[in-house]
Design goal:
The chain has 94 residues and is an alpha+beta fold. The protein is 28% helix and 26% strand.
Length: 94
Amino acid sequence: MSREGRRYRRTVRDLLAGTTQLTGRLAVVVTLFPPDQRRRDLDNALKALLDAVGHGGAYGDDSQIDELRVTRGEVLTGGSTRIEIREIKSDETP
């Protein structure tokens, strides 16, 4: 992993400090707020993000994710990411 990748993983881990690990099946909503108007593929951001969130302790493994939604938000200076994670109840259908 690159130095930048390790730094990103540490940042995400620090943001998740104190979070209780989710153990069930998960639904995840990701909103990516780009730093500028350049063209970007949304899917390229997901692998590193979901791995870092799992490594940070939000869940045990990203294989727990049964629902995944990603959207592009408005341009924000510096860029940003919002991620919402919830456990799916056993009576819900993905």
